[in-house]
Amino acid sequence: MKTMTIGMTKQMCLIRQISPTARKRIEAQGFLGYSDSFLAYINYPLRLAPAICMTWVAVGTYLASPFALWALMPFAFLGAVLPGHPFDAIYNHGIRHLIGAPALPKYGKPRRFACANMTVWLGVTGWAFSSGWMALGYALGIFEVLLALVNVTTGFCVPSFFYGLLFGKPQTQRTA
Q: What is the rounded average pLDDT for all residues in the chain?
């Protein structure tokens, strides 16, 4: 099992706990083999990038702005192809230093799959608005916001869940 204690004292690691449900939700996104204390530290920071994206999509949908939605596409795409999302830099290079917490680990395939899906969804939603299909654009945008809201509020990533159905659930070294 991986242990991450950078920026944490051993006492801090020991007092942090995570529920089995939260652990399963994080592992379903491809973050495997980490200690309970580490997962407890990253549980909420992992939701920062989806929260920023959710807010951006909500504004773009409210404004029916294809350009606002298309402007988010490169960030979503980079989240799919890089080891982490660009918005994670806000946490990794700022917030975590203020609170003495560890950096976020590299994204697994399920989380990257979620970013790839969002990239396509943003493009289609922007296209709907630019083509005058306003009802479709609003429906797609609201659905995107709701999907992100589920992740932000519960830690359950719907696209990662579907990744598990399509390609098999990620497994820890203990269960593999």
A: 90
